[in-house]
User: Fold these one by one.
Assistant:
Number 1:
Amino acid sequence: MPTSTSARLAGQFALVTGASSGIGAAVAVALGAHGAAVAVNYGHDADGANATVKTITDAGGTAFAVQADVSKEDQVQAMFQQAIERLGGLHIVVSNAGIQVDAALVDMTLEQWQKVIDVNLTGQFLCVREAARTFIKRGMQPDVSKALGKIICMSSVHEVIPWAGHVNYATSKGGIMQLMKSSAQELAPHKIRVNSIGPGAIKTHINTAAWDTPEAEASLLKLIPYARVGEPDDIGQLAAWLASDEADYITGQTIFMDGGMTLYPGFAAGG
Ligand code: NAD
């Protein structure tokens, strides 16, 4: 967890979805450590969300938990309303919630396909749309940030790397790329920045089986030139910087944070 007390995001209000565990929790904690007050969204895991809130408040920050299923329009709208009422507005939205429901293509049910698209892609659309509406309605606050608002979508290396056995997940992340870029193009004149973070392998619940035994980790490391599996706080610190005015000229980009996973490591020895 971060120890920085820099006030890079002082006076800003943030909402992070899926912040009861993993990357979302680390992003919420990092934003809090950098001075933002944070609405910590969770789907079902209230204990996890409360733990994230406690980490932020124990460090002197401001945070509260807010329940919503990001795939449900009415719940997303109610979540934004609650965050705005509790915090007084929003400047940063990190759309992070995501799931995997894996199956071979030939075995994948429509339900397995739809569930992942609903949470990972429709959930992102609902949050990006609501964030833009919220920022535009509030108007510019030049003393708080150079941008009207900042949106960060949690994508994946699988927005560009195909993934057999995970066609629903990889499709959702490929979709996020165009959701993010098209939204960034449309919202730039409003001075809203929209970007994605594309994590590689990060140690969280979503992929425990890929790193929790020495054999699994050794196999995973063959895909990572930098030779370590990522930690949630790697992503948290990037999100805090990307949301700050130090990144004010960045919009419409996916920043891969993957220890080189997108460098086609299979070609390192000549292919
Ligand atoms: P995680 O399982 O710890 O976190 C996912 C979070 O999303 C959980 O808190 C979960 O409760 C929440 N969530 C799921 N469905 C929800 C819903 N309908 N409404 C609200 N919240 C919901 O896993 P993670 O690795 O921290 O995943 C976070 C994001 O990072 C996901 O979008 C995932 O695709 C992405 N990602 C993770 C990795 C990795 O290696 N861990 C790599 C690339 C991308």
Number 2:
Amino acid sequence: MARSYDSTKRILVTGGAGFVGSHLIDYLLGQGHDVLCVDNLFTGSKRNIAHLHNHPRLEFLRHDVCFPLYVEVDEIYNMACPASPVHYQYDPVQTTKTSVHGAINMLGLAKRLKARILQASTSEVYGDPSVHPQTEDYWGNVNPIGIRSCYDEGKRCAETLFFDYHRQHGVEIKVARIFNTYGPRMHPSDGRVVSNFIVQALAGEPITIYGNGAQTRSFCYVEDLVRGLVALMESPAEVTGPVNLGNPVEFTIRQLAEQVLELTNSKSELIELPLPQDDPRQRQPNITQAKTKLGWEPKFPLAQGLPATIEYFAALMNK
Ligand code: NAD
Ligand code: UDP
Ligand code: UDP
């Protein structure tokens, strides 16, 4: 019998105690589903789901997705993987294992259960792109042996595994290529640009611009991303992706720094530090596929998402 996507489901969210995963869990619980959060707490924290303590439809399991997992669920969001360069480069071998062994285990689980599975892939599969804005049919420009490769190539291999499980075993897959996302519950020492700049501005410390700040990124507010992930999961079976999910409005890193200074009323100075190796020069999603196939587009401009994020960090730092 065909599964109905209107009714309550048992949903596994790996990496559910992380930044994006915890917002996804809030949303799924709000829709009335049962959620199993699996996380090894490498970069995530129980604090991110503490407000759900004793929630009757949430279960937490401390587990590393590199090891097999035998549970019974209807749907899987595979979000487990450190996302910030500082964290994924801390133990690069474990980062590749998380993407590759984690994908194999979660796909094996999906295959046994005949469950739909969504992979949190990334714009990093495009590397330092020579096509701009990036469309899903662009194969990317990725260094296979650099310091970002553990993440980029791990995620690329995970995409390969998803498509091979789909072709070889008929697993229902959904691959989302997520572009830079920000919002409350990013880790304050996560190292990503939005959290770094806000924390520095609020503390009155220098804002650390890597390079001259002319490199660009496009920033998506986490609420928008979560809606996109769920829309992709609930789309017809033939929509496998990969689908870009991100906000197509592009900023230079220097513009971001200036906007953060203005919104925080901070007097922090801007300083330039060396640009990390293989740092992509530009990044902007083409979201035509998401718009046409999912009816999705982001609603929150940076000017609206940043204040909510600043408020979160201000409260955290005043504790
Ligand atoms: P995050 O670091 O806050 O969350 C990742 C979570 O995965 C953490 O809770 C961590 O403890 C957990 N985890 C890591 N390794 C694990 C393992 N082996 N087993 C079980 N749990 C493990 O990062 P995030 O920003 O929430 O990212 C979530 C997902 O989205 C990641 O897969 C990331 O690659 C992807 N993504 C995020 C962005 C972004 O801008 N936030 C962009 C592209 C892709
Ligand atoms: N797996 C899992 N949970 C399951 C089913 C499988 O963790 O419910 C793991 C299993 O350990 C295996 C991997 O997923 O290593 C891939 O499973 P698959 O059935 O594709 O391969 P095989 O078991 O034949 O190696
Ligand atoms: N960046 C920066 N200062 C910081 C942190 C990051 O200038 O304190 C730059 C970084 O070099 C990159 C951009 O901001 O060009 C986005 O970095 P992030 O680590 O957030 O994400 P990613 O590089 O993975 O897109």
